Amino acid sequence: MSWNTDGSSAPAETKTLVKCNGRDYDVSGIEGIGLCEKLKAIARENQISKFDVYDEENKNLSASDIENGNYEGNLTLVRFNVAA
Predict the structure, then answer these.
(1) Which of these, 81, 80, 79, 77, lies nearest to 24 by C-alpha position?
(2) pTM, 2 dp
(3) Position 44 in a domain
(4) 61: helix, coil or strand?
(5) Mind listing the pLDDT tens digit for each residue in 4-15?
(6) Which residue of 8, 34, 43, 46 has the lowest C-beta tally within 10 Å?
(7) How many structural domains comprise the chain?
């Protein structure tokens, strides 16, 4: 645990999670192209070939949004519905 100069404990490190098929994947510290590749790996693990990514504000994210960090909070990976 770390301490602030006023003697109180510092806030815990914020984790970034990706929700997919009812599971949470910790992607803390992964950014940019690496995060895009990690999302693809999570999709493959869940047998998902096409997917959309949403942030906590329910904004549909593009690959460039993810690479540039243009999202808020945790991410959700959702199978793309081709039948719609």
Answers:
(1) 77
(2) 0.79
(3) yes
(4) strand
(5) 555 555 455 689
(6) 8
(7) 1
